[in-house]
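Exercise 7. Given the encoded structure of a 340-residue chain, write a plausible sequence.
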């Protein structure tokens, strides 16, 4: 069915007992040796790094993004599987998806149980990811986990320990895996891919600030003072905070800081309903609502916009494009920052 390149980055699927907890230390060949390879699939391995995914940095993620593009520069490659820790898989997968303009699939997978577990889920997930990478086309970046296929956009880790760990709380999965085949249920909606960014010497700082009862602007202002070029405000409800937070957002955006507005609620869109510090006022102050994208992926969208250009207005436009808003004729400069 095809030639698949497995990019190994660590995570639980590559973890062993360290005497006081598990940590990633296995190379890709050891991980691959645990899984059955679908008939007709040939596998090549790229050992990129082996770390627990909470330790990943923007530099790690951009290195992964560039490695994906380098692998796909070979027309003989039919697809890619990325083995990745589950804690930040949703962020890395979405970053790759934002910049992915190739019909060949990039399929992320991992495990909830470590490499040597007798009843581990890693081997089955890796087999399913290989099958998905070998038999699907034109679906963007995917997450194959526990017999299900999800789009990178919107898919987050919803269970800390359970095998069925990933879902889009606001949408449906793309397909199912079973009986040696992948059943595709729907076509995901994706904006035109952003251009591949350079790997900067120092990545732009993007912070998250969560709203809650008694919250004040202290942490948001501290993020700006610390040099944040982007901030994700994790608001309550449909995207609501307080008048004091609105003032802090207005001050930040006036200084060129890109502010994205998401919510701590599991599912549903950010919506402009309430004033007196609600989403109506936050958007008027310059915050960009992120629809159904939650904090981790909203941060990646902000990061991609910051990497695309240094112009504050263009950063706003690129962010809106990454969030799925159409790029219009009036947004021609921003359109130049996406793949033709």
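Solution.
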């Amino acid at each position: 069915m095809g030639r698949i390149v497995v990019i190994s980055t660590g995570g639980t699927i590559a973890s062993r007992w360290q005497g006081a907890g598990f940590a990633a230390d296995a190379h890709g060949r050891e991980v691959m040796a645990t899984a059955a390879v679908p008939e007709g699939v040939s596998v090549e391995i790229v050992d990129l790094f082996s770390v627990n995914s909470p330790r990943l940095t923007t530099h790690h993620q951009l290195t992964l993004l560039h490695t994906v593009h380098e692998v796909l520069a070979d027309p003989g490659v039919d697809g890619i599987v990325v083995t990745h820790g589950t804690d930040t898989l949703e962020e890395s997968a979405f970053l790759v998806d934002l910049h992915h303009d190739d019909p060949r699939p990039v399929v992320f997978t991992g495990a909830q149980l470590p490499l040597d577990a007798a009843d581990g889920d890693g081997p089955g997930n890796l087999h399913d990811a290989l099958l998905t990478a070998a038999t699907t086309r034109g679906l963007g970046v995917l997450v194959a986990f526990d017999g299900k296929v999800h789009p990178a956009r919107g898919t987050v880790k919803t269970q800390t320990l359970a095998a069925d760990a990933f879902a889009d709380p606001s949408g449906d999965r793309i397909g199912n895996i079973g009986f040696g085949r992948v059943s595709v249920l729907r076509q995901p909606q994706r904006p035109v891919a952003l251009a591949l960014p350079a790997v900067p010497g120092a990545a732009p700082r993007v912070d998250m600030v969560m709203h809650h009862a008694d919250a004040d602007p202290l942490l948001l202002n501290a993020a700006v003072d610390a040099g944040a070029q982007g901030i994700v405000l994790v608001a309550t409800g449909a995207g609501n905070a307080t008048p004091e937070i609105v003032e802090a957002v207005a001050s930040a955006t006036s200084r060129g800081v890109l502010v994205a507005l998401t919510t701590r609620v599991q599912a549903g869109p950010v919506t402009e309903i309430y004033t007196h510090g609600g989403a109506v006022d936050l958007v008027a102050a310059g915050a960009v609502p992120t629809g159904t994208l939650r904090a981790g992926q909203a941060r990646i969208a902000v990061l991609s916009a910051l990497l695309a250009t240094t112009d504050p207005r263009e950063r706003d436009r690129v962010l809106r494009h990454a969030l799925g808003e159409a790029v219009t004729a009036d947004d021609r400069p921003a359109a130049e920052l996406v793949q033709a």
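Remark. The chain has two domains: 2-184, 206-335. Students should compare their own answers with the one above.
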